[in-house]
Amino acid sequence: MRHAASEQPLGIRHQTETHVWDAELVPGPAGRTRRPEADCPVEVALAAVSGRWTTLLLRELMGGPRGFTELRALLPELSPKVLSERLHALRARGLVTVERHRGFPVRTRYELTEAGRALRALLVELYATGEHLLSLTGSDRVDGDPAPGNTEA
Fold first, then answer.
1. For position 79, which CATH number holds?
2. pLDDT tens digits for 124-151?
3. ∠ CA 56-111-97 to the nearest 5 degrees?
4. Which ranges carry the HTH hxlR-type domain (predicted)?
5. Total domain count for the chain?
6. Residue 149: burial class (beta carbons within 10 Å; 0-12, 13-18, 19+)
7. In the chain, N or C terminus with fewer CB closer than 10 Å?
8. Could you list the residue range(s) of the whole structural domain that residue 103 is in?
């Protein structure tokens, strides 16, 4: 038995019945969300590279295992505190392993895991997309803020 009060007017259907997903953007059900979800593949990828300096740190680790001092030399403007925090976050995300060698001083080597190495394609694509955006906007910045030191309003 159907109740008139529960029926949809003609032409109005439930949103999931009429929504057409772009198969390239959303190839699977995990991405068919209406809000950010922790298990959405896009959110997982963005979380993996989130944080200031993270992409540069990943870039340097793509070249192979590196020690803390070596990473400091490769990224001289990165403070030891932030470097430590980023490495800790990457370890917590399962993207980096750490190996400590005995001795004085203790030598520490950081290396990307298989999951960390899998980010290479994402970093390459982010770089290419950034270059393309810069060429389209005719600017060297796409965030809308003036370059540091530029006081023009």
1. 1.10.10.10
2. 999 999 999 999 988 766 555 555 554 4
3. 115
4. 40-138
5. 1
6. exposed
7. N
8. 53-138
